[in-house]
Amino acid sequence: MTVAMAVFVMRDSKAKFMPLVRDGNRVKPGQQIAYIESELGSILTAERTALNFLSRLSGIATLTARFVDAVVPYKTRILDTRKTTPGMRLLEKYAVSTGGGTNHRIGLFDQVLIKDNHIAAAKNNWDLIAEAVKSARKKRIKSEVEVQDLTQFKRVLEMGPDIIMLDNMTLKEIKQAVKLRDNGYFEVKLEISGGVNLRNIRKFASSGVDLVSIGALTHSAKAIDFSLEIVENP
Questions:
Q1: Global confidence as pTM
Q2: In degrees rounded to 5, what are phi and psi of residue 146?
């Protein structure tokens, strides 16, 4: 709602935008969510931009809420990714948070994430990976390492990063990883990524993982249909 209000006020500084719901509230089809008073030309000019923001961001929040609801009562948190629309990252991540999700990294500056391409670039030199994790710890920066199988997982677990990402691993492998983690490495969080959807999210959450990152929250959310109706003041 804040973004939509900003659009109308930018067009007409004297516009009155009265939200009837708060960001994160659940609404019903046909429910009025705001009332606007402004010069008619300004309303018509700002209409589509405001509705585009509302539709896009509400779609993201709604999809996120569906995933969050699906993992109740497990401890699993739903994360977004950096797969966002160019120029819209902060707004889309805000939408995820209003839907009950948790923001992952904003950029490359707020967490060290060592992915498969980094490992390949290091020519699978795991000593270099361990050194990167150690360096991040010294700088008090969170570190995360992506693994493809249990062999890699066991190697990385001993490094003690903050998070280990289990990328496209089977449910059986994930359960084994959780069991290994729970045997003395409780401080390491486990995240799964890849192949997660609303049909299988509850099954993955029941495995005992801490985090599930879902790129679809921001790159595939269906827009919610909003409309603006002009009414004459009495």
A1: 0.93
A2: -90, 135
